[in-house]
């Protein structure tokens, strides 16, 4: 009787133990469906962390841009009009379309202006005006988790000068009206630029600060309505360097 009871007890213990072992083996077995789903989820997380390749940014910003007065038409403005510093200021708008995880292409429209006071030959006072309009096609590289942006651009540049002065050394009654008073003159050229931006804060809405260096030369010939003058006070051809160093702040929104 004791032997039968012992056998029954051993059987009661052995069956649950065997079933538990089989259940554990089934749990440890690899499920191909679950493994594929896990890999897909991991891939999605990685691609999401590297940034969308089809994002669109819209930026608006304020810029200060310094022009050189050391040579060319800038030196003439300093000597003839007494300009001590020529700093353009204004706004720009741009759109950026992402073509990869870190690369984007875009278009920028910029309008910068400045005014300066000077004395005329008759001891009068006039206000000179300069306006710079640029359209720039740009290539963007978003680096360091998009905190740093390197930009390269090429585009067109238009400068309008609104100055009083004489464009002809031989002033007679037939050309007097063309030589007196203020006159607006426009020239066109190309612009090459590079800039660095740093994201101060924000993700969906980005606040950035940046530095820009640009190169753009406008030819002003001796027949211009407001030309430069040489030491003999006769009109002479020169160039106007409207490139240089710029500083800006911008606010961007990503869609």
Q: CATH first level: which class? A: Mainly Beta
Average pLDDT works out at: 81
What's the order of the H and E elements? HHEHEEEEHEEEEEEE
**Strand content range:** over 45%
Our Rg estimate from Cα atoms comes to 35 Å
Neighbour order of strands in the largest sheet? 1-2-3-4-5-6-7-12
CATH fold name, please? Porin
Q: Compute the number of helices.
A: 4
CATH architecture label name? Beta Barrel
Classification by helices and strands: alpha+beta
Low-pLDDT segments, ≥5 res: 1-20, 27-38, 40-52
The rounded distance between the terminal residues' Cα atoms is 83 Å
Dominant shape: elongated
Can you describe this structure?
It contains four helices and twelve strands. With 255 residues, it is α+β, with helices and mostly antiparallel strands. It has one domain (63-254): Beta Barrel (Porin). An eight-stranded antiparallel β-barrel has the order 1-2-3-4-5-6-7-12. Strands 8-11 form a two-stranded antiparallel ribbon. The relative contact order is 0.15.
